[in-house]
Write a structure and sequence with these properties.
four-stranded antiparallel sheet; 9 helices; binds magnesium ion; binds adenosine-5'-diphosphate; alpha/beta; 10 strands
Length: 246
């Protein structure tokens, strides 16, 4: 059973065609990493999957529900998707635990006590239970990103989307965030991850998708796409990412 099916997805902004017919699936429990140069359309792809952007044409099906169907209940469908961005977007005036409760109460209509219990469970999962009553500004960037992950998990998503979750972090903080993501993957979460962390993709991904200029150039297991790429564009990208400055 596949959690996500993307079929012939196109997206244009005015005359700029950013996605030029994207096809792929994410099977339930799989981790798919999307890699590719800046501007290749990776963020647009994720934003089309959760309909933050309206695709120009094509289909996005999540758990058998076609999100691109004009009659679909978008809010209900989108609730099944957890999204983690480069920027954490925590409310600065709310404590960590309140940050994780607010959407549970407003969107899922959970009672305050239940929302708090679930918030603390998820904080424990990301190793930050002791920060529950701190404010975001008292946390490092890596800790804030782990809070953002806990916030997404508290909504019981069936799919987690990550858009370069470690790109805004100081290098020494990247490992803790990737560690949380690795644990999620081991626990069986279905994940679609845009990342430049090749070691993570190699070790955690079931499949790696290499995108360039709005198309998928290669899609396969990491040992193939990263370890033995078949296309020159993939090889050139990997050379630049793995050996910057050469
Ligand atoms: N809302 C938008 N309006 C116009 N152009 C956009 C918009 N969002 C993205 N683009 C353009 O689409 C292309 C792909 O962007 P993006 O999906 O962010 O790539 P990536 O995440 O791979 O760096 C870029 O040329 C970018 O300028
Ligand atoms: Mg991007």
């Amino acid at each position: 059973m596949s959690t996500v099916e993307i079929k012939d997805l196109h997206k244009s902004f005015g005359s700029l065609e950013v996605l030029k017919g994207i096809d792929f699936t994410v099977e339930t429990g799989q981790v798919v990493c999307v890699i590719g140069p800046s501007g290749s359309g990776k963020s647009t792809l994720l934003r089309c999957v959760n309909l933050l952007e309206q695709p120009t044409s094509g289909r996005v099906v999540v758990e058998g529900i076609e999100l691109t169907d004009p009659d679909v209940d978008i809010d209900a469908a989108r609730r099944r998707l957890g999204m983690v961005f480069q920027q954490f977007n925590l409310f600065p005036h709310l404590t960590v635990v309140r940050n994780i409760m607010i959407a549970q109460e407003r969107v899922l209509k959970r009672k305050r006590a239940e929302a708090e219990r679930i918030a603390r469970e998820n904080l424990e999962k990301v190793g930050l239970l002791e920060k529950a009553d701190a404010y975001p500004a008292q946390l490092s960037g890596g800790q804030q990103q782990r809070v953002a992950i806990a916030r997404a998990l508290a909504m019981n998503p069936t799919l987690m989307l990550f858009d370069e979750p470690t790109s805004a972090l100081d290098p020494e903080l990247v490992g803790d965030v990737l560690g949380v993501m690795r644990q999620l993957a081991e626990d069986g979460m279905t994940m679609l991850v845009v990342t430049h962390e090749m070691a993570f993709a190699r070790e955690v991904a079931d499949r790696v998708v290499f995108m360039d200029q709005g198309v998928i150039v290669e899609d396969g297991p990491p040992q193939q796409v990263i370890g033995d790429p078949q296309h020159e564009r993939t090889r050139e990208f990997l050379r630049r990412v793995l050996h910057p400055g050469d």
